[in-house]
Specification:
single chain; alpha+beta; Alpha-Beta Plaits; 2 domains; 4-stranded antiparallel sheet
Length: about 290
């Protein structure tokens, strides 16, 4: 029903947008891990958490080396079961995150937490990677590590990504209780469950679209605006008012949140007597949105 009209373009704005989101998500994740997770030993899951635990028992191998080895193994699993495009994007995000962390270590070395408020530190240690992970998931990528396990659970079971992260990371968080003490362990467990909730909330907001049903007597200019200005299509059906028994046309379309304001303003200007209903949806499957196989 809805989609982008068939027209070839040399410049692909969708690809540019996805690359910007990929870099932003990776950058936010790296900031949260380096500045807040590592100094406080918050093992809220992930390969970085596993590396922190293993470094306690294997001091001969650096945390960065352990992190790299584990990421490579899980990345190989992701490529096999989730597809090559996932592997390329995840490999890029994993390498970029490592480079950012490496640069931060040299530009701003951290020998202790930034503050003496562990709860405040935990909020940033959880919030930044949660937002970053959600952005990466939204472009079919990941920062690597146990995020790949979560995406495997989502693909082959009915478990959502937030729950999948919790299942994959809970043992890592529990391990902090025995290695770094009960206080750090409890902070890690709390951060783990908070992250799983935040990931789902952020992803739902990123994928929210506006569904329009417009009852109008002037469907032609409205459809023209939708197709030529918003790059979407629409479905037009006949309707009869139950009170006046007057014939109308109903235009149905799906647009992004930013486009919704433009469409609403145009419809009100074009047909002030139109009747508009707008609903939100985070699952749109079809041409121009998500594929049927996703």
């Amino acid at each position: 029903m809805n989609g982008i009209p068939q027209n070839r373009r040399v410049f692909n704005p969708t690809w540019v947008q996805q690359m910007l989101l990929l870099n932003l998500g990776t950058f936010l994740t790296a900031l949260g891990i380096y500045f807040f997770k590592f100094p406080n030993h918050f093992t809220t899951g992930g390969v970085s958490g596993i590396s922190i635990l293993l470094d306690h028992w294997m001091p001969g191998i650096s945390t960065a080396t352990l992190n790299l080895i584990l990421n490579i193994v899980l990345l190989a699993v992701g490529v096999v079961f989730l597809g090559r495009s996932f592997g390329v994007r995840t490999a890029y995000a994993t390498v970029l995150s490592s480079v950012i962390t490496w640069l931060l270590e040299r530009i701003c070395p951290m020998s202790a937490p930034m503050t003496n408020q562990p709860l405040l530190e935990l909020l940033f240690a959880v919030g930044l990677p949660a937002v970053g992970s959600a952005i990466l998931f939204n472009v079919d990528a990941s920062s690597g590590g146990t995020d790949i396990i979560a995406m495997l659970l989502k693909k082959y079971t009915r478990v959502n990504i937030g729950t999948g992260l919790a299942l994959a990371d809970i043992l890592v968080a529990v391990g902090a209780c025995f290695v770094f003490g009960m206080e750090t362990g409890l902070f890690s467990l709390f951060g783990l469950f908070t992250k799983s909730v935040l990931v789902d909330v952020v992803m739902d907001n990123l994928r929210t679209y506006k569904v329009f049903q417009i009852v109008t007597d002037q469907p032609e200019p409205i459809c023209d605006f939708i197709m030529n200005k918003l790059n979407h299509s629409a479905t037009v059906t006949d309707a009869i008012g139950s009170f006046s028994h007057t014939k109308h046309r109903v235009v149905m379309t799906v647009v992004s949140r930013s486009q919704a304001l433009k469409l609403q303003a145009f419809v009100r200007q074009t047909d002030p007597h139109s009747f508009i209903t707008i609903t939100s949806s985070s699952e749109i499957i079809g041409k121009g949105f998500r594929g049927m196989s996703e």
